[in-house]
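Progress narrative, Year 2. Work on Alpha-hydroxy-acid oxidizing protein from Rhizobium deserti advanced from sequence curation to structure prediction during this period.
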Amino acid sequence: MSTPLTIADLKTLARRRVPKMFFDYADSGAWTEGTYRANEEDFARIKLRQRVLVDMTNRTLATTMVGETASMPVALAPTGMTGMQHADGEMLAAKAAEEFGVPFTLSTMSICSIEDVASVTSKPFWFQLYVMKDRGFVERLIGRAKAAKCSALVVTADLQILGQRHKDIRNGLSAPPKWTLNSALQLATKPQWCLEMLQTKRRGFGNIVGHASNVSDLSSLGAWTAEQFDPRLSWDDIRWIKDLWGGKLIIKGILDEEDARAAADTGADALIVSNHGGRQLDGVPSSISMLPRIVDAVGDRIEVHFDGGIRSGQDVLKAVALGARGTYIGRPFLWGLGAMGKQGVTASLEIIRKEMDISMALCGKRDIQHVDREILAGTPFPA
Ligand code: FNR
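Result:
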């Protein structure tokens, strides 16, 4: 393949370069993966409205998300173990996002730490928080995000209990890794990936190992994470986090109108309509099919952001048309990263930018801020 033209091209290239267990980790969904598939497929059910003979010059995709400027309504979603798609993955992705002018969100479960990412970026990035049972650890993590000048906190609400992904279990993906002949073979067939991984020190979970009590290595980390997600997490905890953080707050993982109204009641700056990329509760509707009714449920009380299944610039355009102020991509940038490192993350953003720009123009719009349901020829998802 010469130049990758689509996100699917980047996925093909990533599959060639990244060991199977880590490629599968990104590509997996919970149980039957039905929701993961629906996230992607439901976009095709929304049709655009073609317009002609209108002025299509001087177009702009620039917007704001929680008051911050973005060159287009796309941010990089928080993704765990990004540094396993490519050595130093979070640092490379953050740098690519910064250069492209879009927000980067660092996951609690990242390989590179908050401090690692801060050391290579000059603009603030966003930090995603899992509210672990150890609230002392959570307080310290928030302190570190503040010290690193992170400009927004994304609190993930849809992972009180970890969903089950069959591929990860079959691949023996765990901390510490279970070494089998199969996993050794998976690594042996990807020598370039192994070489780069050997050259970096960052192979643990940088935000956790050495920071959470009694977690000093990958072995103790496995036991810690297994029991640290908090099934008791509540809206009161969100209010506690909001006060502790004191800055822009985004609540991630909303898929229901009632929960959306509760999120707006907290006074948070934004919510993200999301089913965790189909990785948590398999069997729920696609994220895009829930977007219109959530937008209508909260009105202007809170910014509505969106993620799940975006594979093209047209998908972003459709989400914006249905009322998303901004969107996030997860797998598309991970595949870019796995395929070509930082250059691949930039490629994923560039592919999406170009598709969005051309599609917006052919729908007769010049400014993404003026895109609304009027550009759709039809949607199967009622508000
Ligand atoms: C995720 N996601 C996620 N979300 C989160 O809040 N914290 C995390 O650590 C992770 N980790 C993670 C790892 C991987 C490999 C994936 C693919 C996803 C969910 C992520 O933020 C986002 O909701 C989805 O990725 C969006 O769907 P798409 O764009 O991947 O289809």
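The chain has one domain: 7-377. Residues 25-26, 39, 77-80, 107, 109, 128, 156, 252, 274, 276-277, 279, 307-310, 329-331 surround FNR (CB under 6 Å).
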